[in-house]
Write a structure and sequence with these properties.
alpha/beta; four-stranded parallel β-sheet; two-stranded antiparallel sheet; 8 helices; about 55% helix
Length: about 190
């Protein structure tokens, strides 16, 4: 170790490391060969359902590990009171978000899906993280879903709410889901 490193505080070491990371990330984004290889990996691995081969706390999570890491960073920095997951599948993502919120000591997850299969609902409701989860069966672009959410057993909202769209990725569906869930639940 050099004397300069020994004299640095933890905070300055972290800032120097973060600056180095930002620089490397910018270089990676500019590297056409690396970008092409990443795109090729994504396309080829999708043929083998790569994102289906992971689980979180016992539930299948259909996510890329890189996306999970990115969401963890966002949730840790933002500390949302509510994460809305549009598309539940096996429940791994809502369990993942609930566990991150549990570590923070606050927050809840609202999962919305057209079809929550009974065996998945049962597994999610019996999971140790279920205390931070509410599920609604229906379309996230249906205004009645948001109106129904805002009555009775309403979450207590205090700060930013994160929305994870894991469903129909058309522009119309994405815009409708965000407008419906975000705008309606703020009443």
């Amino acid at each position: 170790m050099t004397l300069e490193i020994l004299k640095m505080t933890d905070n300055s070491i972290n800032k120097a490391f973060e600056a180095e990371c930002r620089e490397q990330i910018a270089q990676q984004g500019d590297d056409q060969k690396l970008t092409g290889l990443a795109r090729d990996f994504f396309n080829e691995s999708a043929k083998h359902k790569y994102s289906y081969h992971f689980s979180w706390m016992g539930r299948p999570i259909i996510q890329l590990p890189q996306d999970m890491m990115a969401m963890q960073e966002i949730i840790w920095q933002v500390k949302p009171d509510l994460v809305i997951e549009c598309g539940i599948a096996h429940g791994g993502s809502i369990i993942y978000y609930a566990s991150l919120l549990e570590l923070q000591g606050h927050g809840e997850v609202l999962g919305i899906d057209l079809d929550i299969r009974p065996h998945n609902r049962e597994a999610i409701e019996s999971h140790p993280m279920s205390k931070r989860i509410k599920m609604i069966e229906g379309s996230s672009i249906d205004p009645a879903i948001a109106v129904g959410y805002g009555t009775g057993d309403q979450f207590q909202l205090r700060t930013f709410n994160a929305v994870q769209l894991d469903l129909d990725r058309t522009a119309r569906a994405t815009v409708c889901s965000v407008q419906n869930v975000c705008c309606q639940t703020s009443h």
